[in-house]
Design goal:
The chain is α/β, with parallel strands linked by helices. Helices cover about 35% and strands about 20% of the residues. The chain contains eleven helices and 14 strands. Strand 13 and strand 14 form a beta hairpin. Helix 2 packs parallel to helix 10, helix 4 crosses helix 5 and helix 5 runs parallel beside helix 6. The radius of gyration is 18 Å and the shape is globular.
Length: about 300
């Protein structure tokens, strides 16, 4: 089950070097990412972004007034049952969409899950797609699964998700995480995992794999691959470092300019030192830190530092 990480990565294309500032520059000025965070570990690890612990209209108005590229909303849905989780996701989309109209900004929604594949999938992405379609008249074209959390040893290679410890990569289906009492699973290949979690509604062969051979070929290659996929496709995304994630983000920005939207399901950001302050009037937090927030800074809302 185990493979040496050096052997796993030996045949991959050469790594990329992409600055977070390059991704930030590619983002449209009117685009704000709303991250629905299913567990507090995500909101504890973000950098210089508004973090909401509730989502009344005034809360979203305050958050969008900060003119940050992204806003975190702590939904804590991993601790809820399916019905309550679905209702909470719908509520956030409706409230955020109305606030975005008042603020004159566009929204891209991101579902933050667990880098070891636990959480309400496909429930949350299904509900978000439906809720976004209800608000806008059309659902995001693609649903992209990016559970990689490289700094914590969670990487995806050729569609297979691994847990790396001490230089040994173990497919996540063979780790204790897969035996979770609520969100357990068998598959390590994310294409098979999607089929498993959707109970066969989405077949393995219908899931697209955005592999490192495409990602490391550059923005045009990623854009061409994603643009050609049918509407509604689920895409699993490789990543072994933050630069892989930034490359995909550049392509997503390019697609956004073409009017092609994607709903992302991502793992948590990484940040070693985080400080937070709470707004007593709105029960909001704005988190800041001097280190990198991998998921949000690498995806749509990169900040330069």
């Amino acid at each position: 089950m185990h493979v040496r990480i050096d052997d796993l990565l030996a045949e991959l294309p050469a790594p990329l070097t992409i600055a977070a500032a390059e991704v930030a520059a590619a983002r449209s000025d009117d685009l704000v990412v709303v991250v629905l965070d299913d567990d507090p570990t995500g909101t504890q690890s973000v950098e210089a972004l508004p973090v909401l612990t509730r989502w009344e209209p005034a809360d979203l108005d305050w958050a969008f007034a900060q003119r940050a590229p992204a806003v975190y909303v702590l939904t804590n849905t991993r601790a809820l049952g399916a019905d309550a989780a679905a209702a909470r996701n719908r509520d956030v989309v409706a409230t955020a969409t109305a606030a975005a109209e008042r603020a004159g900004v566009r929204l891209s929604f991101v579902s933050r899950g667990d880098s070891t594949l636990r959480g309400h999938f496909p429930l949350e992405t299904d509900v978000l797609r439906e809720a976004i379609a209800e608000q806008r008249g059309t659902a995001p074209q693609l649903t992209m699964l990016v559970p990689a959390f490289p700094d914590a040893g969670r990487i995806t290679v050729d569609g297979v998700h691994y847990w790396v410890v001490d230089g040994e990569a173990t497919p996540v289906g063979a780790t204790p995480f897969a035996a979770d009492a609520t969100f357990g699973y068998r598959s390590s290949d994310l294409r098979e995992w999607v089929e498993e979690k959707t109970a066969g509604r989405v077949r393995r062969d219908d899931v697209a794999a955005l592999t490192l051979s495409i990602i490391r070929a550059g923005t045009d290659a990623v854009v061409s691959f994603l643009r050609a996929l049918p509407a509604g496709t689920v895409v699993v995304v490789d990543a072994v470092d933050e630069h892989d994630m930034r490359q995909v983000a550049l392509a997503l920005h390019a697609l956004d300019r073409e009017g092609i939207a994607a709903l992302l399901r991502i793992g948590p950001p990484t940040c070693a030192h985080t400080s937070a302050r709470r707004s007593p009037s709105l029960s909001l937090r704005s988190a800041s830190s001097s280190c990198t927030s991998a998921a949000v800074s690498s995806w749509w809302a990169a900040t330069s530092h």
